[in-house]
Structures are given as structure tokens and as C-alpha cells.
Design brief:
Blueprint (H helix, E strand, L loop, with lengths): L12 E3 L3 H13 L4 E6 L6 H5 L2 E6 L10 H11 L3 E3 L9 H10 L2 E2 L4 H8 L1 H10 L15 H11 L3 E5 L9 E3 L5 H16 L4 E5 L5 E9 L5 E13 L2 E7 L6 H17 L4 E9 L5 E7 L6 H8 L3 H9 L16 E8 L1 E2 L5 E2 L2 E2 L2 E3 L6 E5 L6 E2 L6 E9 L2 H14 L1 E3 L5 H9 L1 H5 L6 H5 L11 H18 L13 H12 L2
Parallel strand pairs: 1-2, 1-4, 2-3, 4-5
Antiparallel strand pairs: 6-7, 6-8, 9-10, 9-12, 10-11, 11-14, 12-13, 14-21, 15-16, 17-20, 18-22, 19-21
Length: 508
Amino acid sequence: MGHTRADGVKHKVLIANRGEIACRVIRACRELGLPTVAVYSEADSDAVHTWMADERVLLGGAESVDSYLRADRVLAACLELGVTLVHPGYGFLSENADFREACDAAGVGFVGPSAFAMRQMGVKTLARETMTAAGVPVVPGTDQGLPDGAAAQKLADEIGYPVMLKAAAGGGGKGMRLVFKREDIVSAFDGARREALAYFSDDTVYIEKAIVQPRHVEVQILADTHGNTVHVLDRECSVQRRNQKVIEESPAPFLSDATRHAMGQVAVQAAEAVDYVGAGTIEFLVDQDENFYFLEMNTRLQVEHPVTELVTGIDLVVEMLRVAMGEPLSFRQDDVSQRGHAVECRIYAEDPAQNFLPSPGRLHVYRPPHGPGIRVDDGCVEGGEIPRFYDPMIAKVSAHGSTREQAIARMDAALERFQIAGIAHNVPYLRWLLASDLFQGGRYDTGIIGHLGDYTVPEPPEGAEGHAAIALAAILGHRAASRPAVAQSASKTSNWTTAARTAHLRGR
């Protein structure tokens, strides 16, 4: 099956990303019969996504600013190879309105929303103003940046403590400060402003009333160019460490049907207010009385999209691609239904014993779990490298079950089977979180990790280290013995090896 533009040109998709999300998009393209182009940095020259795609293009050096963030080189690759669509994945250029406009000017389609929608929802103060005008509930606060700490103190006195200071151009928890006392707000404002300038080159900071013990619940939306906007249910994202999501689940537990329905309707209303097209997420804070407030909109595909796909049976990436090719959504709102429960855990190359310090390196052993209801999204193989230049995510494990209890049990069993050696990782930490009474009970908020206290790295069973060392030595010895007797240059790979490896990875 192939797809062509109105002018008869066959579509070809360049994935402007790396790792597991690049692999995920390539698989969706393959399902639609769309040829693909991978881009890569010097650090990713042997990465899985480069072998899965039909073509590949080197962007530049290992650092993101020299490769994956080089919009000019990405666009040049599109024009050189006859690419008709760019899928940005998440991160990097995915919410870069200037890049979107450059694609439009060059006649290259962008799998995502317009530059207008990105700008309206990307600047937090402008998004608050837009949502307020659209009748979407927002947390009490300001729609404009504050000039100094004294102004922040005056407004905080009016709306009441605690308050949250936020970078207007921010995300990922950067440029945020939670303030409980009047005497702390000026120094907190100055700190938030410095951090905002360092991370976003924009020191604009605004203020919101802090919701006590909130839940972080988001709603997935999809919209096409034919006037159809739907919500694809909700996700609970309250398990966060340093404002970064760790575990997500769908549906959000212990949320009334009335609130769930209202949030879906408001999410559609928010998307329509900016003429949104593609996949996006409306994020809400929910208080203990189930009042919910707009937090932000992510104008891209979310990391945690697999749980939504598992409980609805809807392939969000395929829908994104179809919408970008001018097709209507393949379903309507009434077709969306909840099928069981799903949980996702993010597997990171980081060391919980060293304050979660990134742990890049070679995956001497990498054996992801399989089984009923288990899905693994990754972009690495045994013997591959987790580079130090990028986010240290190794994989995402998702578990689906007919009930929440079954999904959690399947997840724990899958994590227990996950074999990783050569680098530190957070799998034991994730199992600790899953086993906690707070998570098991389902009545938790964004403070769950703080409530659980310090994590203690479990001691390995007696003799386990020795057994692990023996097993690793055996694996490495077998790998060495399996190599060809005739040494070859490290920079050269035989055509037979290349062909075999490519065929294997394209079948993943």
C-alpha cells in the first residue's frame, strides 16, 4: 500500500528524532507502506533506528546542537531525498514553531500542529490567556510575566500561599519554584528567573496558586483537517520525580465518570480554540474535590502514548500520519472505549544509589521481557551503546490487563524478567514504587515519591554478584567465540553482515 499527495508525488517520511520514538514511528510508517529516512548523529552511527529505516542521513556531531537540533540540516535532507513529511517525535524539534514554518515554506509536510498552535500553547502565559478566553478552567494566577520579586510577593499576598512560580517558556520542571512562605518568595523568584534564562533563554516568570496535593491527569486528543476533534481518554501521570514522569497509567484511578467526561469535553474545547491538528495532550491539575484546572498543552506525541494505545486499540502514530496526509480520522468520538487498564514504566540508564546519576555505557546484556499484555518500546540491542549526549532512557515497558491489579502484576513480573547488565538502571526502583501501598491503592498524588521517603538500594542475594559475573563472562566469551576468525577493520562491515542485520532489524 502506498500514499501519494494530490500532485501524484509518493509520500516519504523523515523521522527527525532518535532512539525508541524513531523506531516507533518507523514501524507505523511500515504499516502504511511509507518509505522512511532516519537521521543520526556521529554518536548514533550504529543505532537501531538507522538500520530500520530505508535510508539514513548523518546530521553532524554527537551533541544535539550539532545534529538533532540542526533544523537547517534536517530540512536540507528532506529536500535532497524527496521527503514529503517530517515526523518530529517528541523533544528536539517537535515543538519548534520556526522549524514548522520552515517546512511549510519549503513545501515539506509536518506531522503535527501549525506554528500558530505551537506558539499559542508553548508560551505558558499566552496559553493561560488563550484558555481563559475559551472558557477552559485555569489555576488562579497571572497571564503575564512579573517584573520582579516584589511584584510576585504582592500577587502572592492576594491569591494566598502556597504559590507556584513558573517559567513562561518552561517545561520539564525547569524554572519552577513552590513557595509556602512570604519571606521566601523574592529569593525563589530570582532563582526561577535565573534558571529560566539558562534553560530557555527567556527569564519571564509568572505566578499561580499552588494546588495542594494535586493529581496530574492528562487527556489525549486527536484532530484532523476535516473538522473532527476527539479525546482518546485520560492518563494518570502523578508519579513524578523532580517534576519528571516515572510511571503512567490509563485510566486515571479513582476519578468519577462525571469528572472524566467533563475533562474530555474541556480538552476538545481547548484544542479547538487553537485550530489544533494532529496528536496533542491537554494536562490538568486535579484537586482533592476533583476540581480540575488547565496546566499546559503538549503540542506533540507524548512519551507515555503506549498506555492509551493499549486501552483503546487506536494507533496514535498511524492516525497522526494519516491526518498529515490529509485524511480524516479513522474513528469518531463514539467509537472510543476503554478496554482494561495499562501501566507504563520508563527504564532509564541512571543509578538510584548515586542520586539517579546518568549511567551511559555499553549494554553487555539486554534481554527485554515478553509475555501476555507486555509491550516494550525501545531503540537498542544487546551490545549497543547508551550515549552520554542524550536523555538516558533505555526503554518503556507497558503492561495491559483486564483490571488495574492484573496490569500492575504483569508489569512487576515483566520488570523482574528484564535483564540489563553493563550499566546502572532504575528497574529495582520502579519495582519498589509499584509495590508501595500508595501506588497499589491508587489514591496517590504528585507527592507520592516524597511520601515514600528515601529509596534504599536492595542488597543482592548472597552469591548473586558472583553468579552474575560468571553469567556475564559466559555471554561475552560466547560472543567473542562467535566472531569470524579473520579480523576485520572496526570501521568496515561486510555486505553480508549489513544485509542480514538490516533484514533482522526491519522485522522488529
